[in-house]
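User: quick one, sequence for these tokens?
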């Protein structure tokens, strides 16, 4: 048996914070605002995985009202999501995500993002796709107000 899930996340830029995407700190004058490390890519991937698992979303598992998650490392949270997947009798077969960012350029960090998220999910790097695009200067992304990410995840039942 297979299940698919979709995830989406968006965060506004914020001064004085590191820019963490897919577990990689990307050199930038601004980071993203959020309760945790605001890793918009990891958040979209986790929501896709949780959607396929039918386990809600990251806000349900890791509420931003809980001080325990303030400044949390999103890849640490991703490891917990992967453990939940295995605990419920599934495995991550594949994930793919798209990042929309006008700046900074993300191509140099794509492979490291794939490797770090694959390690957190407990899968081979070939099971994780990462792409980046701009919005041709349209919308909040184009005005460089924030970054958005979309993801899909495919889970496979272990006893199938």
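Assistant:
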């Amino acid at each position: 048996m297979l299940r698919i899930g979709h995830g989406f996340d968006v965060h506004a830029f914020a001064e004085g914070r590191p820019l963490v995407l897919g577990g990689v700190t990307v050199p930038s004058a601004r980071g993203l605002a959020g309760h945790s490390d605001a890793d918009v890519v990891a958040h979209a991937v986790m929501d896709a995985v949780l959607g396929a698992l039918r386990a809600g979303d990251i806000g349900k598992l890791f509420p931003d009202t809980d001080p325990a998650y303030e400044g949390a490392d999103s890849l640490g949270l991703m490891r917990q999501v992967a453990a939940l997947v295995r605990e419920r009798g599934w495995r991550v077969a594949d994930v793919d995500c798209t990042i929309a960012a006008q700046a900074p350029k993300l191509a140099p960090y794509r492979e490291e993002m794939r490797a770090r998220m694959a390690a957190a999910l407990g899968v081979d790097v070939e099971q994780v796709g990462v792409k980046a695009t701009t919005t041709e200067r349209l919308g909040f992304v184009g005005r460089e107000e924030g970054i958005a990410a979309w993801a899909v995840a495919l889970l496979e039942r272990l006893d199938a």
